[in-house]
Amino acid sequence: MDIINNQVQHLADIEKKYSLLSRNEILFQSFGYDLQISLRADSALFFLYKKSKLSESQFEQFPFFPSEEDDQPFSFKATSKVFKFIEQSQFKLLPKNRLPASPLSVFGTRSKHGESYFLILCLNNGPKLAGFYLLIFKKKINLLTPQLAKIWPELSGTALKLLTDEEQKDRTELDVAERDTLLKIAQKLSSSLKVEHILQQMVVALREVVQYNMAVIFLINQETGKFEYEIAHGFADDARDRLHLKLNQGITGWVAQTGKAMIIPDVTKEKRYVVADKLVKSEVSVPIKIGSKTIGVFTLSSIRLRAFSQQQLQLLEAFASSASIALQNARLYRQTLQKRELDKDLQVAKKIQKALLQRRLPNSEWIQFSAFNKPSKQVGGDLYNVLQLNNGNIILSVGDIAGKGVSGAILMATLQAIYRTEIRRSLEVNELLELVNRQFAETIEVGRFATFFHSVIQPVERKIEYCSAGHNPAIVFHANGTHELLDATGIVLGLMKDAKYSKKILAFEPGDVLVAYSDGVTEAENDKDEQFGLQRLLDVIADANTKNPAGIKNQILEELKLFSGRTVHQDDITIVVAKYKK
Amino acid sequence: MKLKTDMLGDVAVVKLDGKLMGGPPASDTIRNEVYNLLNQNTKKIVFDMEKVTRMNSSGLGILISNLSSIKGKGGELKLAALNENMKGILVMTKLNTIFDIAATAADAAHSF
């Protein structure tokens, strides 16, 4: 259990960290990742200057990944010795917020981890420093190329502008957050807005209207239509069990159905009466209505015969109408709160996803791309990457988290972050997947997993190397009309920490098409409960493979739409198409 | 998702009925049943999937978490009577390597 608890805790921590990040910070971090990948740094730390915080270093450090374990030699905290060294040697002589003089600088250091080389890229906002990226290299290579020096002022300027714009938006969001806190306080103070509380008060208040021995209040659940007793007062314990009535059962059920109040002067003379407590001799039952709609019933019982008069009934009906307003308010309020909570969750998740999914596909000399990703809800559990390396090779991957909604989206973000961090290591495809799996398995709860397809397209060698962790078979459609299915080469990610994956290689030549997708495509259903399936997908690709990638992707989407008719997409859909130019 | 459990000697055969598609109703129903069985010290459990009409990756997640809780208590779980679709999913995800699969519930019960 401890392991599971730890995983849950870990996940909660990640969620918390992400939810605390502003858009500004996510943007800053995502820009950092891109720098790291394009400059092929072994590791990187990002520091963002915080105006409002009085932290030691005045700089917030990103990212959260990799972890601070020993096998991650280049990850260190802001308080660590290495950091202190950097701070002292580089920044000490400079006034606060103004480091270093040049927007680009390089230095080397020696620590217990061996030699390291650092490249600092500063985001200067006029004379002030907004933040900086610290890229760490294990080998001494020419870090400060003339190209970088040339492009950096413009690049950092653009990044800075985006950051400033986002900061403005974040401030508005903060106002909203403050309002939410106020709402929470208001909620605590006005506890009478709780349904249970209102019902309790009703039972007490009714005593002031009439004399009774037992009272029971039923409500009709507006979502399920079920008739349930919410509160019972004065009954013997064994009588409570008999209070489970259906609509139209007993006097109370009858009143609920007809919406008309009833006085029963003598229960023994009433056929519809269901005995709950033998002591009851007479009762009155009154509907609680909103307009003409009955939302509940309260029934008062007495151990005396003819305990309730017509006059009292009128009083009780007036009481019922004011109670109905209170109940309705409470219900609306509860719905609003629930929706607000959900919206907030969704906003956080959407924010994370937006930062993590690619917006632009690379321009390759040899390969053309097209990609599509649509969550079934506001947020999704699918991810994809298309990244070009300096040597012209392309990394193309598609992943699918089992389970949707916000928790799926958080896992997707976790997986994407791990993958994007490890991908820089230029490992063999299988080694990479093993590494990603190990870290992912340490993060997630039992029963959660992801399928993942990871490939490297090598245009010069005209081949694809791939690994698949239980992912739907990607398809390579050759220009000569034959096709290959890229079956799984290992188990799904996240289940077994030490899972092994094998690497497969296949030819990829001019005119060939690679289609990777998530199960939302093949498992799309029509109204006859049939699935789209792999064969239909193959047929579409066979038909469309002479088109460009966007054309192929669009044809798949059209066929999917035709097939599933008006049925709403049940699952997230991701399609990535790559075609070797002729 | 409905279920019914029959005892074959010391083996509990849990017959699942309906769509195994994740979400609280299905996952709670099965988890509660497995929890009860484990509490009664039943260690040999078969999920009879004959009446499961459809399964997706979330359903697979339910099977995995139950496998893990059963193994955690020193028990064993076997799956029986999977349709082609479900077998396909298990093979595709390579999860056939961690689940014991039998053609019928009786076969599964006898293989403990």
Description of the molecule:
The complex is a heterodimer of chains A (582) and B (112). Chain A has 582 residues and is an alpha+beta fold. Chain A folds into three domains: 165 residues, Beta-Lactamase (2-Layer Sandwich); 145 residues, Beta-Lactamase (2-Layer Sandwich), CATH 3.30.450; 223 residues, PPM-type phosphatase domain (Phosphatase 2c, domain 1, 4-Layer Sandwich). Chain A has 13 helices and 20 strands. In chain A, the strands form four sheets. Chain A has a five-stranded antiparallel sheet with strand order 2-1-5-4-3, with helices on one face. A five-stranded antiparallel sheet of chain A has the order 7-6-10-9-8, with helices on both faces. Chain A has a five-stranded antiparallel sheet with strand order 11-20-19-16-17. In chain A, strand 4 and strand 5 form a beta hairpin. In chain A, helix 5 packs antiparallel against helix 8. Chain A is elongated, with a radius of gyration of 32 Å. Chain A starts with a helix and ends with a strand. Chain B has four helices and five strands. Chain B is globular, with a radius of gyration of 13 Å. Chain B has one domain: STAS domain (Transcription Regulator spoIIAA). Chain B has a five-stranded mixed sheet. Chain B has 112 residues and is an alpha/beta fold. Helices cover 42% and strands 33% of the residues of chain B. In chain B, a hairpin with a 2-residue loop joins strand 1 and strand 2. At the A-B interface, loops of A face helix 2 of B.
